[in-house]
Specification:
mainly beta; 7 helices; globular; disordered N terminus
Length: 985
């Protein structure tokens, strides 16, 4: 038997080791998660197409990103996300090897190494006033010499060294209240011209020595009509602007050391033009462009008093900056829509009659109109000149067009997700296979041998790559049908451009996209904005002939009185079912927990006049709403005045025409925070669809506590007015945070806590009966996390067994929030070493699985922290009963385990939000993180206790069972022989 033990124990140990292995191996990356990188809507682009090396384009975007893109495939060479408060003003290239960026309203100037994006130097510019920033890198200085970078910001003109960023000289214009609008250095001149505007009518011109900043000459003149918008430089001695009325063009001559004005009426050239007109900020020699609400007009400046129209196109037209060709000529591009595609023309500025390029390109009709175009030239293989165009579309996507084809495209609108929801995939019909994968016996055996080698850590790098390729090929995660575990879903996101995209959770691919027409810029709606997206119809399992749909909500403007728009979109096809332009504004949207007979979910839309509008507007929905009207409550927050109010539905709206679907609202209660001491900083509440498995919580010694579970509990955090700014803007004596737990039905304050010496920013998350919030402690100079758990004391009598037996308990008695609750609160505070961007909590289908706190860190990663670490009942020396319950001994800080980062080594740049969605499998929660990047993964806070992992090796299990059977048989034979030998003795 000793021989049998020596043989079987290692096998049992190996089997036990395999069953408890939960680490993420290299070949498992990408099986359950995906990561997508974006840059956002491009504002500026500078091509760098040297003869040797990689051809690239440097771009800056509205998401404050500076990036280098490969011109051949559109991939990102390098990228820097500068942050929300560091907007990129301008970019340029110096010395052919440095990317120069000016950001933060002209206060930060940086140089990045062009090949790899490493920062070479950084300079902070000081100014006395707030002004528009201008960056100029003069091109007429030889490359082998040091370039002088000119920056106007903060009322001062700076000359910087391109080598180390040092300030060579500085000239202050703040005393003259001057706003520099143009800086240039004529090719044959040794002085710098700085053109500025004082007020709205005075124009000043300064001639400055570029070596020391001395003023060579200064002259000014006043134009009594005033200027509006941009001032364009069309020649070294001619500028053009639009007057204050927007109906006249003003030509400005700088000849003979003076300033002369010449006014031209736009109506003299176009009789039916609508005013005001806007001057486009282009860089073209002797040309400029203006646009109206319907057309774009391109003018040629013959001399400073003579204009000529050379092109007149529709509004959806983009004109590029001038491109200097090798022959010294200047070309520019015009892109306009034509049928189902676009038409690209490249013309010479000196010869408008001939086209250097004239081609049509087909594009996706869901990309909208063209907003910007940047052109670049190259030499084809046959030595003829060619042109490529980088086009920015209305949906923020980016295209590179060359030789009449789209070389590559980027869906960079996904860098600006404003809201998201999910949708189930259709059910796979019986007998129909969505993915047909053919396997023969050899491939099956080869696959299992490779998996066995990987499990035993004997696989080579080539084997690991083959294993990962086989798993991705054979995985069912990319099917377009739902699975029984609920892992396959559609993530439906709404972007800032008003575009809805459906992403597959399997690999993140775009299943369909739809640019909402109601959220596009038009004459009726010049400043549309996308607000939210909601689930509109969720068919039950018995109504599978109806597709689910979503509701996109937007407004035609940014004010509270802007009219609202609704769009209803099919979740499977991406087709718009209908669109509604409302006659009222949308301030708040409340999805109600009721549906009409057609499975459409009821919504209440609040306008700026405190009226509630019911959608869908049908008799069935109205009947359902009337039945539940007395149980509908909501709240509103006025951050400026520091007031929280509770509301309910009143009578129908009284107007000239009776509207059955419009209701007045009644104020039930209000809480006014004193403006002298408190300012509302953060609010948080539970998810409306959160599932709580049980109200009872078993604690040590088999005692029971009942959770206070209410979806109407609101977390409110206020800060002292002096501490409302950034960290350290107030002293510990001046700073304080006050926490409130408020019942939104009655306005009753359930609990209140004060944290003296604490300051925001405050991030909070609510779930079940607890709240966790993060803030900064000025006294300790550390971040802190606090947890509050609230329990219902009125049900404590239910612990009596005899009352339960005799039926005298109150577990089945109705609960009303109007009765004063008897609550008990437990709280605890811990130090936390990270700053936080956002927080969320995992959610599961039945609420049985343990909770994890998902923390978006300042490093743009997502950290999963077990809720047990934030248990307020933790103590330094827990009792034996508490240890058996799972109480962790108390420490002053929360641990950060490197393996707890659900994003692994990846970063979700510009992280703004984390959304969790329950899977059908109770142990698993789906996590979607969005910012400039997107990241999706699955987490199992209590491990996958209810299923086997996808990479479970059934072959190894069979081999192990077979080996155990053989071992048992061998040991039985050996044992029989041993017993026989002992009997013969």
């Amino acid at each position: 038997m000793a021989t049998a033990k020596r043989f079987t124990l290692p096998l049992l140990f190996l089997l036990m080791f395999l069953s408890h292995s939960t680490a993420l191996y290299e070949d498992q990356v990408g099986l359950m998660d995906w990561h997508q990188q974006y840059i956002g809507k491009v504002k500026q682009a500078v091509f760098h197409t040297q003869k040797t090396g990689r051809r690239r384009v440097i771009v800056s975007t509205e998401e404050n990103v500076v990036a280098s893109l490969d011109l051949r495939r559109g991939e990102i060479f390098w990228r820097h996300v500068l942050g929300g408060n560091d907007a990129v003003d301008q970019i340029d290239i110096a010395l052919g090897k440095y990317v120069i960026t000016l950001s933060s309203n002209g206060t930060v100037l940086r140089a990045w190494n062009l090949p790899d994006g490493q920062m070479v130097w950084e300079t902070f510019l000081q100014g006395s006033t707030l002004s528009k920033s201008v960056l100029v890198v003069p091109a007429n200085i030889k490359m082998e010499k040091q370039n002088t970078i000119l920056v106007f910001a903060g009322g001062c003109l700076h000359a910087m060294s391109s080598i180390d960023g040092e300030v060579m000289w500085r000239k202050d214009f703040s005393m003259e209240s001057l706003e520099i609008v143009q800086m240039f250095q004529p090719i044959e001149s040794d002085v710098i011209y700085a053109v500025g505007v004082v007020g709205s009518s005075q124009l000043d011109v300064f001639q400055i020595n570029p070596k020391n900043g001395d003023l060579v000459k200064h002259y000014s003149a006043t134009y009594h009509g005033g200027f509006s918008g941009h001032v364009s430089l069309v020649a070294s001695d001619t500028l053009v602007a639009v007057d204050a009325t927007g109906s006249n063009l003003v030509l400005i001559s700088l000849q003979s050391g003076g300033i002369n004005f010449h006014q031209v009426h736009v109506s003299d050239f176009v009789s039916d033009i609508t005013v005001p007109v806007t001057l486009l900020p282009l860089k073209l020699s002797y040309m400029f462009a203006v646009k109206t609400t319907s057309i774009v007009i391109l003018f040629k400046v013959r001399n400073w008093k003579t204009l000529e129209i050379v092109e007149k196109t529709s509004y959806a037209t983009a004109v590029s900056d001038g491109l200097v060709l090798s022959e010294g000529q200047e070309a520019f591009g015009i892109v306009q829509h034509k049928g189902n595609g676009i038409h690209l023309k490249v013309k010479l500025a000196d010869d408008m009659g001939s086209d250097l390029l004239n081609e049509d390109v087909k594009i996706d009709d869901q990309q909208g109109v063209i907003e910007k175009v940047f052109i670049n030239n190259y030499i084809r293989t046959d030595r003829s000149p060619g042109f490529r165009a980088l086009i920015v579309m209305e949906d923020h996507s980016l295209l590179l067009v060359q030789q009449g084809e789209i070389v590559w495209s980027r869906e960079d609108g996904l860098a600006s997700v404003v809201d998201m929801t999910t949708s189930q995939l259709p059910v796979e019909k019986e007998g129909v296979s969505v993915a047909k994968v053919e396997h023969n016996l050899f491939e099956w055996l080869k696959g299992h041998v490779l998996k066995l080698k990987g499990t035993l850590m004997l696989a080579s790098p080539e084997d690991i790559a083959a294993i990962q390729g086989m798993r991705l090929k054979n995985s069912e995660k990319n099917k377009m049908t739902r699975d029984h575990n609920g892992f396959r879903k559609l993530l439906i996101v709404l972007t800032k451009a008003g575009k809805i995209l459906a992403l597959h959770t399997g690999d993140g691919r775009v299943v369909w996209s739809f640019l909402v027409p109601a959220l596009r810029k038009s004459e009726a709606c010049e400043t549309p904005s996308a607000l939210n997206i909601y689930q509109w119809r969720i068919p039950h399992h018995h109504a599978m002939d109806e597709n689910p749909s979503v509701l996109a909500v937007g407004s035609c403007g940014h004010g509270s009185s802007a009219l609202g728009v609704l769009s209803f979109v099919d979740s499977y096809t991406g087709k718009e079912l209908k669109s509604v332009t409302l006659a009222h504004s949308i301030v708040q949207v409340f999805p109600l927990p009721f549906t009409d007979p057609t499975e459409q979910r009821l919504h209440l839309l609040m306008d700026n006049e405190k009226r509630a509008h019911l959608y869908p507007s049908s008799n069935d929905s109205l009947s359902t709403f009337r039945k539940e009207q007395s149980n509908i409550y909501w709240y509103s927050v006025d951050y400026e005045r520091g007031i929280i109010r509770g509301h309910t539905v009143g009578s129908n709206c009284m107007s000239e025409v009776l509207d059955d679907y419009c209701f007045n609202t009644r104020d039930l209660w209000s809480i006014v925070f004193p403006a002298e001491t408190e300012k509302i900083a953060t609010i948080a509440s539970r998810k409306s669809n959160e599932v709580v498995h049980t109200q009872a919580k078993i604690i040590a010694d088999h005692d029971v506590m009942y959770k206070y579970i209410s979806k109407n509990m609101l977390f409110v955090a206020t800060v002292s007015p002096k501490a409302a700014g950034d960290i350290s803007s107030a002293t510990p004596e001046e700073a304080s945070i006050v926490i409130y737990l408020i019942d939104t039905v009655t306005g009753r304050i359930l609990h209140r806590i004060t944290h003296p010496g604490a300051q925001g920013p405050i991030h909070a998350v609510c779930s079940e009966n607890w709240v966790i919030y993060h803030y900064f402690n000025l006294r300790a100079h550390r971040y802190q996390m606090s947890v509050i758990e609230i329990y219902d004391q009125s049900r404590a009598d239910n612990k009596d067994v005899w009352k339960l037996v005799l039926g005298k308990h109150n577990l089945t008695s109705p609960i009303t929030l109007y009765s004063r609750p008897e609550v008990v609160v437990k709280s605890q505070t811990y130090f936390f070493s990270h700053s936080v961007r956002t927080m969320a909590v995992t959610s599961t289908a039945k609420g049985i699985t343990s909770k994890q706190l998902l923390i978006g860190t300042i490093g743009d990663q997502v950290l999963a922290l077990d809720k047990r670490y934030l248990d307020p009942r933790r103590s330094p020396n827990p009792t034996q009963a508490e240890r058996e319950e799972g109480i962790i001994p108390l420490t002053d800080s929360l641990p950060i385990i490197p393996q707890s980062y659900v994003t692994h080594s990846l970063q979700v740049e510009g992280l703004r939000g984390i959304v969790t969605v329950p899977a059908t499998l109770e142990s698993t929660s789906l996590v979607f993180s969005y910012g400039v990047d997107l990241f999706f993964t699955r987490v199992a806070p209590s491990r996958t206790y209810d299923s086997l992992t996808e990479d479970f090796s059934y072959a190894l299990l069979l081999i192990t069972i077979f080996a155990l059977v053989v071992a048992i048989f061998v040991t039985w034979v050996l044992s029989e022989k041993k017993e026989l030998r002992e009997k013969w003795r």
